[in-house]
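Sequence and structure are no longer studied apart. As an example, we show below a sequence and the C-alpha coordinates encoding its fold:
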Amino acid sequence: MINSTNLARSLVRQLIELGVCDFVISPGSRNAPLLIALGEAADKSLIKLHVKIDERGAAYFALGLSKASDNYVAVVCTSGTAAANFLPAVLESVHGRNKVIFITADRPAKLRNTGANQTTNQINLYPFVKTHDLTSEIEVKRLFDGQPIHLNIQFEEPLVDSQSNDWLAGIQIKPVKNENIVSGELRATSGVVVIGHDRAGYKRNEIANFISKLNWPVVSEDPLSFPTSIAHASLFLSDETVRNFLAPENIISIGRTTLSRSINNFINCAKKRIVIDPRIKDIDFNRQADELLSHLPSELVCEQSDQKIWQSISARASAELQGLNWSEQLAAISICENLPDDSALYVGSSRPIRDIEAFAKPRNGIEVFANRGLAGIDGNISTIFGIAEKFSTTYAILGDLAFLHDISALASVPKKNLKIFVIDNNGGGIFSTLPQASAKNFEKLFGTPHNLELSKIVSGFGISSCEVNNLTDLQAKMTSPVKGVEVIIVKVPNRNENAKQLMQITQNVSSAVRMGINLA
Protein backbone atom coordinates (compact mmCIF):
# COMPACT_ATOMS: atom_id res chain seq x y z
CA MET A 1 0.00 0.00 0.00
CA ILE A 2 1.52 3.37 -1.04
CA ASN A 3 2.32 5.97 1.62
CA SER A 4 -0.19 8.63 0.49
CA THR A 5 -3.08 6.19 0.67
CA ASN A 6 -2.03 4.96 4.12
CA LEU A 7 -1.67 8.52 5.40
CA ALA A 8 -5.10 9.55 4.13
CA ARG A 9 -6.81 6.44 5.48
CA SER A 10 -5.19 6.80 8.90
CA LEU A 11 -6.32 10.40 9.21
CA VAL A 12 -9.88 9.74 8.03
CA ARG A 13 -10.28 6.74 10.34
CA GLN A 14 -9.04 8.69 13.36
CA LEU A 15 -11.37 11.62 12.65
CA ILE A 16 -14.36 9.31 12.33
CA GLU A 17 -13.51 7.56 15.58
CA LEU A 18 -13.25 10.96 17.30
CA GLY A 19 -16.83 11.76 16.29
CA VAL A 20 -16.30 13.90 13.18
CA CYS A 21 -19.24 13.03 10.95
CA ASP A 22 -19.39 15.96 8.49
CA PHE A 23 -16.69 16.42 5.84
CA VAL A 24 -16.77 19.22 3.27
CA ILE A 25 -14.64 18.67 0.19
CA SER A 26 -13.68 20.43 -3.03
CA PRO A 27 -12.31 18.59 -6.08
CA GLY A 28 -8.56 18.53 -6.73
CA SER A 29 -5.62 16.35 -7.62
CA ARG A 30 -3.20 16.56 -4.69
CA ASN A 31 -6.02 15.87 -2.23
CA ALA A 32 -7.08 12.76 -4.19
CA PRO A 33 -5.96 10.30 -1.46
CA LEU A 34 -8.23 12.02 1.05
CA LEU A 35 -11.18 12.33 -1.33
CA ILE A 36 -11.01 8.63 -2.22
CA ALA A 37 -10.80 7.62 1.45
CA LEU A 38 -13.70 9.89 2.36
CA GLY A 39 -15.76 8.54 -0.52
CA GLU A 40 -15.26 5.00 0.78
CA ALA A 41 -16.28 6.07 4.30
CA ALA A 42 -19.39 7.79 2.93
CA ASP A 43 -20.30 4.64 1.00
CA LYS A 44 -20.41 2.83 4.35
CA SER A 45 -22.62 5.61 5.82
CA LEU A 46 -19.94 6.42 8.41
CA ILE A 47 -19.85 10.09 7.44
CA LYS A 48 -21.83 12.68 5.54
CA LEU A 49 -19.94 14.12 2.59
CA HIS A 50 -20.67 17.65 1.31
CA VAL A 51 -19.13 18.53 -2.06
CA LYS A 52 -18.52 22.22 -2.91
CA ILE A 53 -16.69 23.47 -5.98
CA ASP A 54 -15.53 26.73 -4.35
CA GLU A 55 -13.03 26.40 -1.49
CA ARG A 56 -13.95 29.71 0.12
CA GLY A 57 -17.61 28.73 0.17
CA ALA A 58 -16.71 25.21 1.32
CA ALA A 59 -14.85 26.59 4.34
CA TYR A 60 -17.76 28.84 5.31
CA PHE A 61 -20.18 25.95 4.81
CA ALA A 62 -18.07 23.92 7.24
CA LEU A 63 -18.12 26.87 9.63
CA GLY A 64 -21.92 26.89 9.52
CA LEU A 65 -22.07 23.15 10.14
CA SER A 66 -19.75 23.55 13.11
CA LYS A 67 -21.78 26.39 14.60
CA ALA A 68 -25.04 24.46 14.30
CA SER A 69 -23.70 21.12 15.56
CA ASP A 70 -21.14 22.41 18.10
CA ASN A 71 -18.90 19.65 16.81
CA TYR A 72 -15.72 19.49 14.79
CA VAL A 73 -16.26 19.62 11.02
CA ALA A 74 -13.48 18.94 8.52
CA VAL A 75 -13.03 20.81 5.25
CA VAL A 76 -10.56 19.48 2.66
CA CYS A 77 -8.89 21.15 -0.31
CA THR A 78 -5.99 20.70 -2.71
CA SER A 79 -2.80 22.79 -2.70
CA GLY A 80 -2.01 26.34 -3.84
CA THR A 81 -4.66 29.02 -4.14
CA ALA A 82 -7.27 26.49 -2.95
CA ALA A 83 -5.67 26.60 0.49
CA ALA A 84 -5.52 30.41 0.39
CA ASN A 85 -9.27 30.51 -0.21
CA PHE A 86 -9.77 29.01 3.26
CA LEU A 87 -8.22 32.09 4.90
CA PRO A 88 -11.36 34.24 5.51
CA ALA A 89 -13.19 31.34 7.16
CA VAL A 90 -10.07 30.40 9.13
CA LEU A 91 -9.89 33.92 10.59
CA GLU A 92 -13.60 33.92 11.38
CA SER A 93 -13.39 30.54 13.10
CA VAL A 94 -10.29 31.56 15.08
CA HIS A 95 -11.82 34.75 16.43
CA GLY A 96 -15.19 33.07 16.88
CA ARG A 97 -13.64 29.96 18.50
CA ASN A 98 -15.43 27.57 16.15
CA LYS A 99 -14.51 23.90 15.77
CA VAL A 100 -13.30 23.55 12.19
CA ILE A 101 -10.50 21.29 10.93
CA PHE A 102 -8.87 22.84 7.87
CA ILE A 103 -7.10 20.10 5.91
CA THR A 104 -4.89 21.28 3.06
CA ALA A 105 -3.15 18.88 0.72
CA ASP A 106 0.41 19.81 -0.23
CA ARG A 107 3.35 18.78 -2.41
CA PRO A 108 6.33 17.22 -0.63
CA ALA A 109 8.56 19.73 1.19
CA LYS A 110 11.42 19.07 -1.25
CA LEU A 111 9.39 20.83 -3.98
CA ARG A 112 8.92 24.06 -2.00
CA ASN A 113 10.76 27.11 -3.35
CA THR A 114 11.73 25.25 -6.52
CA GLY A 115 9.12 26.71 -8.86
CA ALA A 116 7.09 23.49 -8.76
CA ASN A 117 3.54 23.85 -10.03
CA GLN A 118 0.80 24.72 -7.52
CA THR A 119 3.30 24.86 -4.66
CA THR A 120 3.62 27.68 -2.12
CA ASN A 121 4.35 28.06 1.57
CA GLN A 122 1.25 26.61 3.24
CA ILE A 123 2.88 26.34 6.67
CA ASN A 124 2.41 29.95 7.79
CA LEU A 125 -0.72 30.58 5.80
CA TYR A 126 -3.18 31.01 8.66
CA PRO A 127 -2.53 33.45 11.53
CA PHE A 128 -3.26 32.28 15.10
CA VAL A 129 -3.54 28.62 14.01
CA LYS A 130 -0.64 26.24 14.44
CA THR A 131 0.02 24.25 11.28
CA HIS A 132 0.71 20.54 11.69
CA ASP A 133 2.79 19.72 8.62
CA LEU A 134 2.41 15.97 8.14
CA THR A 135 4.39 13.41 6.20
CA SER A 136 3.39 10.49 8.40
CA GLU A 137 0.64 9.46 10.76
CA ILE A 138 -0.13 11.61 13.79
CA GLU A 139 -2.35 11.14 16.84
CA VAL A 140 -5.13 13.61 16.02
CA LYS A 141 -6.97 13.34 19.35
CA ARG A 142 -4.39 15.44 21.18
CA LEU A 143 -5.12 18.35 18.83
CA PHE A 144 -8.82 18.54 19.76
CA ASP A 145 -8.95 21.49 22.16
CA GLY A 146 -12.17 23.16 21.01
CA GLN A 147 -10.39 25.54 18.65
CA PRO A 148 -9.66 25.48 14.89
CA ILE A 149 -7.03 23.01 13.63
CA HIS A 150 -4.88 23.16 10.48
CA LEU A 151 -3.50 19.93 9.05
CA ASN A 152 -1.20 20.39 6.05
CA ILE A 153 -0.50 16.98 4.50
CA GLN A 154 2.39 16.30 2.16
CA PHE A 155 1.24 13.70 -0.35
CA GLU A 156 3.91 11.95 -2.43
CA GLU A 157 3.06 10.53 -5.83
CA PRO A 158 1.57 8.14 -6.75
CA LEU A 159 -1.61 9.54 -5.28
CA VAL A 160 -3.95 6.69 -6.21
CA ASP A 161 -3.53 3.08 -5.14
CA SER A 162 -5.26 0.25 -6.97
CA GLN A 163 -5.01 -2.04 -3.92
CA SER A 164 -7.92 -2.13 -1.52
CA ASN A 165 -8.71 -3.61 1.86
CA ASP A 166 -11.38 -3.22 4.50
CA TRP A 167 -9.52 -0.44 6.32
CA LEU A 168 -12.72 0.78 8.01
CA ALA A 169 -13.51 -2.55 9.66
CA GLY A 170 -13.99 -2.57 13.42
CA ILE A 171 -14.22 1.20 13.68
CA GLN A 172 -15.31 2.44 17.14
CA ILE A 173 -16.65 5.95 17.47
CA LYS A 174 -15.88 7.73 20.74
CA PRO A 175 -16.59 11.46 20.31
CA VAL A 176 -14.33 13.96 22.03
CA LYS A 177 -16.28 16.42 24.16
CA ASN A 178 -14.83 19.91 24.57
CA GLU A 179 -16.89 21.37 27.39
CA ASN A 180 -16.77 25.04 28.33
CA ILE A 181 -15.16 25.77 31.69
CA VAL A 182 -17.60 27.04 34.30
CA SER A 183 -15.84 27.31 37.65
CA GLY A 184 -14.42 29.67 40.24
CA GLU A 185 -15.87 32.52 42.25
CA LEU A 186 -16.84 36.09 41.41
CA ARG A 187 -17.28 38.78 44.05
CA ALA A 188 -18.88 42.11 43.21
CA THR A 189 -21.33 44.73 44.40
CA SER A 190 -24.36 45.54 42.23
CA GLY A 191 -24.07 46.05 38.50
CA VAL A 192 -25.18 45.29 34.95
CA VAL A 193 -24.37 42.38 32.61
CA VAL A 194 -23.60 43.07 28.94
CA ILE A 195 -23.63 40.01 26.66
CA GLY A 196 -21.82 40.18 23.35
CA HIS A 197 -23.47 38.52 20.38
CA ASP A 198 -20.88 35.73 20.34
CA ARG A 199 -21.40 34.96 24.08
CA ALA A 200 -17.64 34.31 24.36
CA GLY A 201 -18.34 30.85 22.95
CA TYR A 202 -20.60 29.82 25.83
CA LYS A 203 -23.87 28.01 25.28
CA ARG A 204 -27.06 29.97 25.74
CA ASN A 205 -28.15 27.85 28.72
CA GLU A 206 -24.77 28.40 30.42
CA ILE A 207 -25.20 32.17 30.15
CA ALA A 208 -28.87 31.97 31.17
CA ASN A 209 -27.96 30.06 34.32
CA PHE A 210 -25.29 32.63 35.17
CA ILE A 211 -27.53 35.69 34.76
CA SER A 212 -30.43 34.08 36.64
CA LYS A 213 -28.19 33.57 39.68
CA LEU A 214 -26.74 37.06 39.38
CA ASN A 215 -30.11 38.83 39.01
CA TRP A 216 -28.70 42.02 37.48
CA PRO A 217 -30.14 43.98 34.53
CA VAL A 218 -29.03 42.33 31.28
CA VAL A 219 -28.14 44.16 28.08
CA SER A 220 -27.73 41.69 25.21
CA GLU A 221 -26.56 42.34 21.68
CA ASP A 222 -28.72 39.32 20.81
CA PRO A 223 -32.13 39.96 22.43
CA LEU A 224 -33.61 36.95 20.64
CA SER A 225 -31.67 34.55 22.86
CA PHE A 226 -32.30 36.14 26.25
CA PRO A 227 -35.97 36.93 26.98
CA THR A 228 -35.15 38.72 30.25
CA SER A 229 -32.77 41.19 28.60
CA ILE A 230 -33.57 44.90 28.40
CA ALA A 231 -35.16 45.85 25.08
CA HIS A 232 -33.82 48.75 22.98
CA ALA A 233 -30.82 49.43 25.23
CA SER A 234 -28.55 50.43 22.35
CA LEU A 235 -31.06 53.15 21.45
CA PHE A 236 -31.57 54.85 24.81
CA LEU A 237 -27.95 54.40 25.88
CA SER A 238 -26.87 56.52 22.91
CA ASP A 239 -27.86 59.50 25.10
CA GLU A 240 -24.88 60.47 27.27
CA THR A 241 -27.10 61.85 30.03
CA VAL A 242 -29.07 58.60 30.21
CA ARG A 243 -25.83 56.57 30.19
CA ASN A 244 -24.45 58.53 33.11
CA PHE A 245 -27.72 58.22 35.00
CA LEU A 246 -27.66 54.42 34.62
CA ALA A 247 -23.90 54.00 35.14
CA PRO A 248 -23.43 51.13 37.63
CA GLU A 249 -20.73 50.18 40.08
CA ASN A 250 -19.81 47.13 38.00
CA ILE A 251 -20.31 45.94 34.45
CA ILE A 252 -19.66 42.34 33.49
CA SER A 253 -19.00 41.95 29.77
CA ILE A 254 -19.37 38.43 28.43
CA GLY A 255 -17.62 38.06 25.08
CA ARG A 256 -17.05 40.94 22.69
CA THR A 257 -19.41 43.88 22.22
CA THR A 258 -19.08 44.67 18.53
CA LEU A 259 -22.32 46.31 17.42
CA SER A 260 -22.98 49.68 19.03
CA ARG A 261 -20.83 52.58 20.18
CA SER A 262 -23.51 53.35 22.75
CA ILE A 263 -23.02 50.00 24.48
CA ASN A 264 -19.24 50.33 24.56
CA ASN A 265 -19.54 53.90 25.86
CA PHE A 266 -21.85 52.62 28.58
CA ILE A 267 -19.35 49.93 29.58
CA ASN A 268 -16.75 52.66 30.04
CA CYS A 269 -19.08 54.47 32.45
CA ALA A 270 -18.79 51.75 35.09
CA LYS A 271 -16.50 52.20 38.07
CA LYS A 272 -15.29 48.63 37.61
CA ARG A 273 -15.22 46.63 34.38
CA ILE A 274 -15.13 42.83 34.49
CA VAL A 275 -14.53 40.82 31.32
CA ILE A 276 -15.38 37.14 30.93
CA ASP A 277 -13.92 35.66 27.75
CA PRO A 278 -11.64 32.63 27.07
CA ARG A 279 -9.98 34.55 24.21
CA ILE A 280 -8.04 36.74 26.63
CA LYS A 281 -5.65 33.77 27.00
CA ASP A 282 -4.54 33.70 23.35
CA ILE A 283 -6.32 35.89 20.79
CA ASP A 284 -7.35 38.97 22.81
CA PHE A 285 -4.50 38.91 25.33
CA ASN A 286 -4.19 42.73 25.27
CA ARG A 287 -7.80 43.29 26.25
CA GLN A 288 -8.20 45.87 29.02
CA ALA A 289 -10.45 45.75 32.09
CA ASP A 290 -10.23 45.99 35.87
CA GLU A 291 -10.71 42.24 36.15
CA LEU A 292 -10.17 39.62 33.44
CA LEU A 293 -11.67 36.13 33.72
CA SER A 294 -10.94 33.41 31.17
CA HIS A 295 -14.02 31.39 32.12
CA LEU A 296 -17.54 31.79 33.43
CA PRO A 297 -17.71 31.68 37.27
CA SER A 298 -19.83 29.02 38.92
CA GLU A 299 -20.02 30.70 42.34
CA LEU A 300 -21.29 34.26 42.73
CA VAL A 301 -20.96 36.46 45.79
CA CYS A 302 -22.67 39.55 44.42
CA GLU A 303 -25.27 42.07 45.48
CA GLN A 304 -28.56 42.15 43.56
CA SER A 305 -29.43 45.17 41.42
CA ASP A 306 -32.70 47.03 41.02
CA GLN A 307 -34.08 46.31 37.56
CA LYS A 308 -37.23 48.43 37.80
CA ILE A 309 -35.70 51.63 36.45
CA TRP A 310 -34.25 49.71 33.47
CA GLN A 311 -37.61 48.10 32.72
CA SER A 312 -39.36 51.48 32.98
CA ILE A 313 -36.92 53.13 30.58
CA SER A 314 -37.18 50.20 28.17
CA ALA A 315 -40.99 50.49 28.20
CA ARG A 316 -40.79 54.20 27.33
CA ALA A 317 -38.42 53.45 24.47
CA SER A 318 -40.76 50.74 23.21
CA ALA A 319 -43.70 53.12 23.25
CA GLU A 320 -41.80 55.50 20.97
CA LEU A 321 -41.30 52.74 18.42
CA GLN A 322 -44.99 52.12 17.86
CA GLY A 323 -46.29 53.09 14.44
CA LEU A 324 -42.99 53.02 12.57
CA ASN A 325 -43.18 53.63 8.84
CA TRP A 326 -42.16 50.91 6.39
CA SER A 327 -38.41 50.62 6.79
CA GLU A 328 -35.50 48.27 7.45
CA GLN A 329 -36.24 48.54 11.16
CA LEU A 330 -39.90 47.61 10.80
CA ALA A 331 -38.94 44.68 8.59
CA ALA A 332 -36.51 43.41 11.24
CA ILE A 333 -39.14 43.76 13.98
CA SER A 334 -41.75 41.87 11.97
CA ILE A 335 -39.45 39.00 10.98
CA CYS A 336 -38.24 38.48 14.55
CA GLU A 337 -41.75 38.58 16.02
CA ASN A 338 -43.04 35.99 13.56
CA LEU A 339 -40.20 33.46 13.73
CA PRO A 340 -41.64 30.09 14.79
CA ASP A 341 -40.23 28.29 17.80
CA ASP A 342 -37.62 25.58 17.22
CA SER A 343 -36.24 27.27 14.11
CA ALA A 344 -32.82 28.76 13.44
CA LEU A 345 -32.02 32.33 12.44
CA TYR A 346 -28.82 33.59 10.85
CA VAL A 347 -28.24 37.35 10.96
CA GLY A 348 -25.83 39.07 8.60
CA SER A 349 -23.38 41.78 9.62
CA SER A 350 -23.77 45.52 9.06
CA ARG A 351 -27.30 46.91 9.45
CA PRO A 352 -29.51 43.81 9.94
CA ILE A 353 -27.77 42.65 13.13
CA ARG A 354 -27.79 46.19 14.55
CA ASP A 355 -31.46 46.69 13.74
CA ILE A 356 -32.31 43.49 15.61
CA GLU A 357 -30.21 44.56 18.60
CA ALA A 358 -31.93 47.95 18.77
CA PHE A 359 -35.51 47.20 17.72
CA ALA A 360 -36.40 43.53 18.28
CA LYS A 361 -38.27 42.52 21.40
CA PRO A 362 -36.48 39.97 23.62
CA ARG A 363 -37.75 36.43 23.19
CA ASN A 364 -36.57 32.83 23.12
CA GLY A 365 -37.48 29.63 21.28
CA ILE A 366 -35.04 30.06 18.39
CA GLU A 367 -31.34 29.43 17.79
CA VAL A 368 -29.54 32.56 16.62
CA PHE A 369 -26.29 32.54 14.65
CA ALA A 370 -23.99 35.19 13.20
CA ASN A 371 -20.38 35.48 12.07
CA ARG A 372 -19.16 37.89 14.75
CA GLY A 373 -15.58 36.63 15.01
CA LEU A 374 -14.46 39.29 12.56
CA ALA A 375 -17.94 40.50 11.53
CA GLY A 376 -17.33 40.18 7.79
CA ILE A 377 -19.97 40.09 5.08
CA ASP A 378 -18.15 37.38 3.12
CA GLY A 379 -19.30 33.78 3.05
CA ASN A 380 -22.68 34.49 4.63
CA ILE A 381 -24.82 32.42 2.27
CA SER A 382 -22.45 29.45 2.55
CA THR A 383 -22.55 29.71 6.35
CA ILE A 384 -26.35 29.79 6.24
CA PHE A 385 -26.43 26.65 4.08
CA GLY A 386 -24.20 24.87 6.60
CA ILE A 387 -26.45 25.86 9.50
CA ALA A 388 -29.56 24.80 7.59
CA GLU A 389 -28.20 21.24 7.37
CA LYS A 390 -28.81 20.80 11.10
CA PHE A 391 -32.32 22.30 11.43
CA SER A 392 -35.71 21.42 10.00
CA THR A 393 -36.47 25.09 9.36
CA THR A 394 -34.00 27.96 9.00
CA TYR A 395 -34.38 31.69 8.37
CA ALA A 396 -31.79 34.30 7.51
CA ILE A 397 -31.62 38.09 7.22
CA LEU A 398 -28.90 39.60 5.04
CA GLY A 399 -28.11 42.96 3.53
CA ASP A 400 -27.95 43.17 -0.26
CA LEU A 401 -24.17 43.59 -0.41
CA ALA A 402 -23.56 40.60 1.87
CA PHE A 403 -25.91 38.59 -0.33
CA LEU A 404 -24.09 39.56 -3.53
CA HIS A 405 -20.69 38.96 -1.94
CA ASP A 406 -21.39 35.22 -1.69
CA ILE A 407 -23.79 34.87 -4.61
CA SER A 408 -21.84 31.94 -6.11
CA ALA A 409 -23.01 29.80 -3.17
CA LEU A 410 -26.43 29.66 -4.85
CA ALA A 411 -24.94 27.24 -7.38
CA SER A 412 -25.13 24.55 -4.68
CA VAL A 413 -28.39 24.94 -2.78
CA PRO A 414 -29.17 22.52 0.08
CA LYS A 415 -32.30 20.42 -0.01
CA LYS A 416 -33.55 22.03 3.18
CA ASN A 417 -36.34 24.32 4.32
CA LEU A 418 -34.80 27.79 4.28
CA LYS A 419 -36.03 31.36 3.81
CA ILE A 420 -33.53 34.12 3.21
CA PHE A 421 -34.72 37.72 3.59
CA VAL A 422 -32.49 40.17 1.71
CA ILE A 423 -32.84 43.79 2.81
CA ASP A 424 -32.39 45.64 -0.48
CA ASN A 425 -31.52 49.32 -0.11
CA ASN A 426 -29.31 49.26 -3.21
CA GLY A 427 -25.94 49.43 -1.51
CA GLY A 428 -24.03 49.74 1.75
CA GLY A 429 -26.69 51.11 4.05
CA ILE A 430 -24.58 51.09 7.19
CA PHE A 431 -22.19 53.69 5.79
CA SER A 432 -25.00 56.24 5.59
CA THR A 433 -25.18 56.08 9.40
CA LEU A 434 -21.41 56.52 9.92
CA PRO A 435 -19.22 59.66 9.87
CA GLN A 436 -18.11 59.03 6.28
CA ALA A 437 -21.68 59.73 5.12
CA SER A 438 -20.60 63.33 4.44
CA ALA A 439 -17.46 62.35 2.53
CA LYS A 440 -16.89 63.56 -1.00
CA ASN A 441 -17.81 60.89 -3.58
CA PHE A 442 -19.70 59.00 -0.87
CA GLU A 443 -21.91 57.02 -3.26
CA LYS A 444 -18.99 55.83 -5.35
CA LEU A 445 -16.69 54.97 -2.45
CA PHE A 446 -19.07 53.76 0.26
CA GLY A 447 -22.68 53.64 -0.91
CA THR A 448 -21.71 51.37 -3.84
CA PRO A 449 -25.17 51.03 -5.42
CA HIS A 450 -25.45 47.77 -7.35
CA ASN A 451 -28.54 48.73 -9.37
CA LEU A 452 -29.41 45.06 -9.84
CA GLU A 453 -32.72 43.23 -9.79
CA LEU A 454 -31.81 40.64 -7.19
CA SER A 455 -34.91 38.51 -7.78
CA LYS A 456 -33.86 37.92 -11.39
CA ILE A 457 -30.37 36.90 -10.31
CA VAL A 458 -31.80 34.44 -7.81
CA SER A 459 -34.24 33.04 -10.36
CA GLY A 460 -31.30 32.47 -12.71
CA PHE A 461 -30.02 29.88 -10.23
CA GLY A 462 -33.38 28.11 -10.35
CA ILE A 463 -34.34 29.26 -6.86
CA SER A 464 -37.77 30.54 -5.87
CA SER A 465 -37.74 34.29 -5.35
CA CYS A 466 -40.10 37.23 -4.90
CA GLU A 467 -40.13 40.88 -3.81
CA VAL A 468 -42.05 42.55 -1.00
CA ASN A 469 -42.24 46.28 -0.35
CA ASN A 470 -44.73 46.63 2.53
CA LEU A 471 -45.45 45.14 5.93
CA THR A 472 -48.54 43.19 4.88
CA ASP A 473 -46.73 41.27 2.15
CA LEU A 474 -43.73 40.65 4.40
CA GLN A 475 -45.91 39.18 7.16
CA ALA A 476 -47.64 36.97 4.62
CA LYS A 477 -44.26 35.58 3.59
CA MET A 478 -43.30 35.02 7.22
CA THR A 479 -46.43 33.07 8.04
CA SER A 480 -46.46 30.93 4.89
CA PRO A 481 -44.92 27.43 5.19
CA VAL A 482 -41.20 27.06 4.53
CA LYS A 483 -40.76 24.52 1.74
CA GLY A 484 -37.38 24.24 0.11
CA VAL A 485 -35.18 27.29 -0.39
CA GLU A 486 -36.81 30.65 -1.01
CA VAL A 487 -35.29 34.13 -1.24
CA ILE A 488 -37.45 37.14 -0.40
CA ILE A 489 -36.13 40.49 -1.56
CA VAL A 490 -37.32 43.12 0.93
CA LYS A 491 -37.39 46.44 -0.91
CA VAL A 492 -36.99 49.30 1.57
CA PRO A 493 -36.64 53.10 1.33
CA ASN A 494 -33.31 54.47 0.19
CA ARG A 495 -30.28 54.63 2.42
CA ASN A 496 -30.43 58.36 3.07
CA GLU A 497 -34.05 58.14 4.21
CA ASN A 498 -33.14 55.23 6.47
CA ALA A 499 -30.27 57.17 8.07
CA LYS A 500 -32.56 60.15 8.70
CA GLN A 501 -35.25 57.92 10.24
CA LEU A 502 -32.70 56.23 12.51
CA MET A 503 -31.50 59.61 13.73
CA GLN A 504 -35.06 60.80 14.35
CA ILE A 505 -36.02 57.61 16.19
CA THR A 506 -32.95 57.87 18.42
CA GLN A 507 -33.76 61.50 19.23
CA ASN A 508 -37.40 60.64 20.01
CA VAL A 509 -36.40 57.78 22.30
CA SER A 510 -33.85 59.98 24.04
CA SER A 511 -36.40 62.73 24.69
CA ALA A 512 -39.04 60.30 25.97
CA VAL A 513 -36.60 58.55 28.32
CA ARG A 514 -35.21 61.83 29.67
CA MET A 515 -38.71 63.05 30.44
CA GLY A 516 -39.60 59.76 32.08
CA ILE A 517 -36.68 59.94 34.54
CA ASN A 518 -36.90 63.73 35.02
CA LEU A 519 -33.70 64.52 33.17
CA ALA A 520 -35.23 66.61 30.39
In short: The chain has a mean pLDDT of 95. The chain has 18 helices and 19 strands.
